[in-house]
Amino acid sequence: MSITLKTLIKFQSRFCRESSKVVSNFSTSSRDDARRDYKLVIVGGGTGGTAIANKFAKKLGKGKVAVVEPSETHYYQPMFTLVGGGIKTLSQTASPSDSLFPKGADWIKDRAAAFDATNNVVTTENGDELHYDYLVIAMGIQMNFDQIKGLTDALDHDPMVCSNYNPAYVNKTFNAINKFKEGNAIFTFPNSPIKCAGAPQKIMYLADYHFRKMGKRDKANILYNTSLPVIFGVKKYADALLEVVKDKGITTNFRTCLTEIKHDSKEAVFQNLDTGDNQTVKYEMLHAVPPMSCPDVLKKHPDLVDETGWVNVNKNTLQHQTYSNIFALGDCTNMPTSKTAAAVSAQSGILQKNLNAVMDGKAATPLYDGYTSCPLITSKGKCIMAEFGFDGPLETFPINQARESRLMYHLKKDFMPALYWMGLVKGHWNGPKVYRKLFHLGMGK
């Protein structure tokens, strides 16, 4: 499928105008009877689940695919950084879920409460039993705001404590940037895997940009307190980002984890993960990223998750390590790559191929190379386009993508949202591998 920038931007504009008018084109289900039988059950209606539903609904036929998803609103979460940075609005990130699911699929507007993988059954909170031949788990990642003492209370009551990791709080971020006067502006990274590992520092760079624009930068002490030992997991991009923070005068504190917020006294408590020592720091503004985990309902089933608590799949095939009729993709899995929408795009195409093969009685093929991408916005109008896989950089364009680029910024800001709505969640976009080979004259990976 050929998708041009002009077509995508035109589609995005039309989509934003029309999405609220869409009438559901597939069936929704509440509890009519306790048992339902499906060829394919997809648990999770986020990026991965919606993409897989669109790939299989027409192939398998009406009433053969069910999507278990309680939320009526689907968010394009990679845009939350731009919302927090005052570049996009929250409404631009949202679409009704029923405008994205395919015709012929059943929407089970409920949560999964239990899995019986031995007997091929998913039970919902309402008590419905969904029997399946094949199961795709795409439940995303769980935000654990309550694991940082005082964080939820601070987010609810302190206008200068914010987080881009929840649509309920994302608008607070730009408000806090505008209200900032002087003192410490702290940006945190928790001691857990998270979705989009670059996002905690992207909003920091946008805050730096706005502080400079408003003439407040000399009054701001910007701190990046991260639990990680490095600024980014891929050395090529880490080296570039260390130069960015140096040029901007940002202080980086590695192996430093937020454990408590005392918003009444405007204090944050951090633990040094190497020594165990605690330090209390005053803040004027604090952007907090909560610890994250695989959803609790999955962790209750040790046959589905590994010893670290994530869905246990083969990293190259996306097939479950124990149950051959179960596949998983996205943030809930134990695949050793960053948890991003870009990763889901590549994974969705590979899952489609391998699930089709298994349905045809064939073996799954090891195809996934760990591809993911993190567009690292370093200022308004600048972006480092990090693309990498299990073994290091996997860059699409025949340039050094570790350099700040205005082109890459506009790809992130203008092109990728349209590609997401028109391509990825509709089941048409499987990542840039074909284009990567084309741009590298067939010599790329």
Automatic annotation (TrEMBL):
Subcellular location: Mitochondrion
The enzyme's E.C. designation: 1.8.5.8
Catalytic function, reaction form: a quinone + hydrogen sulfide + glutathione + H(+) = S-sulfanylglutathione + a quinol; ubiquinone-10 + hydrogen sulfide + glutathione + H(+) = S-sulfanylglutathione + ubiquinol-10; ubiquinone-10 + hydrogen sulfide + sulfite + 2 H(+) = ubiquinol-10 + thiosulfate
Gene Ontology CC terms: mitochondrion
Pfam family, one: Pyr_redox_2
Recorded GO MF terms: FAD binding; glutathione-dependent sulfide quinone oxidoreductase activity; quinone binding; sulfide:quinone oxidoreductase activity
Alphabetical keyword list: FAD, Flavoprotein, Mitochondrion, Oxidoreductase, Quinone, Transit peptide
Keyword Oxidoreductase: yes
Membrane-spanning parts: none
Residues of the FAD/NAD(P)-binding domain: 38-151
SUPFAM superfamilies: FAD/NAD(P)-binding domain
Cofactor names: FAD
UniProt cross-references to InterPro entries, sorted A to Z: FAD/NAD-bd_sf, FAD/NAD-binding_dom, Sulphide_quinone_reductase
GO annotation terms (biological process): sulfide oxidation, using sulfide:quinone oxidoreductase
Organism domain of life: Eukaryota
Family named by the database record: Belongs to the SQRD family.
Function recorded in the entry: Catalyzes the oxidation of hydrogen sulfide with the help of a quinone, such as ubiquinone-10, giving rise to thiosulfate and ultimately to sulfane (molecular sulfur) atoms. Requires an additional electron acceptor; can use sulfite, sulfide or cyanide (in vitro). It is believed the in vivo electron acceptor is glutathione.
Protein name (database record): Sulfide:quinone oxidoreductase, mitochondrial
